[in-house]
Amino acid sequence: MNLYFVNLLVQFLLKTKQTMYKFIDNTELRKEKRLIWASTRSVLENIGFLRNKNGKKSKSRWNLFVRLLHIFIWLLKLSGHYHKGYGNAKTIEVTEITLEYPNLPQAFDGFKILHLSDLHIDSIPGFASLIIKKINKLSFDICFLTGDYRKDNSGSILNILKPFRILSKYIQAPYGTFAVLGNHDTFLMAQYENQSGLELLINESVEIIKDDDRILVTGTDDPFSYYTEQALLSLETKCYNFKIALVHTSELAKAASVNNYDLYLCGHTHGGQICLKKGVPLISHQFEGKQFNNGEWKIGNMKGYTSRGVGVSGIPVRFNCPAEIVLITLKRS
Q1: pLDDT tens across 235-291, in order?
Q2: Count of the separate structural domains present in the chain
Q3: CA gap 264, 304 in Å, rounded
Q4: Could you give the CA distance from residue 113 to residue 173 in angstroms, rounded to a whole number?
Q5: Cβ of 56: how many Cβ atoms within 10 Å?
Q6: How far apart are CA 108 and CA 239, in angstroms?
Q7: Residue 262 domain-assigned (yes or no)
């Protein structure tokens, strides 16, 4: 008899979790769109040019940047600053902010979002365990990851699968764990979606359901290196009182604002990662304006947040720019 009630409880919990979010497109349409996307993205990943909203850009510019990084690493080691920067990179802060909205549905008042960006989980050995120690202390309703999960821009992803699976077990949230891809990621990661315990949002939207209220979450493919018109089209959503956009960079912020999104979460810049003492980044890898380098910003009625990132890119050091995990509380004003 006890076993019978246990089984009923398990089925109830599973059914409840399934109704906590719902994709806008049906399963067959999602599969069809994924096939088209994977075909396009695979071509973009393998040709000699990358693509953003302003057109094509040569990979040679990135290759030059990588060579300059190697010189910078050598200078850091020669000056004795490398060890300090490496220690800084392993120190992760938790940034807690509260965002108020008059149009936030009543059921979502106090709703907590865990925002993780730019994990680059293979840049530092054992980095997943450092992240787990931080998020274990946090309480949240939903988790959003905004891209860049590996160190390199190309090559195998097998080396990140194990640490990412371990990490994903600790970031499961009652209302789902959703992720978008960044410029360091590959279309092949979609093959391991089920094993990772998270849902990829690739130019698509999902309803988050709480009591009788709903909010919309839209995730796009990376616009920095793999921009397509489908990313813009995915933001043309209607009939929702409150909408959240997840994009790897701030490049689609104006488009999201025009389409009445309320919150825009992104990363990519690492806050500069290596900054001057006043937090001024030496390099940010974004061209929308310095207001998007890190932290809170606003376009029209839409609020945005650019994460400094959890991990490191290019070189495993940080100066005057701590890594961060962001915990956002939504409040109805």
Answers
A1: 999 989 999 999 999 999 999 999 999 999 999 998 888 887 876 777 766 667 788
A2: 1
A3: 4
A4: 9
A5: 10
A6: 17
A7: yes
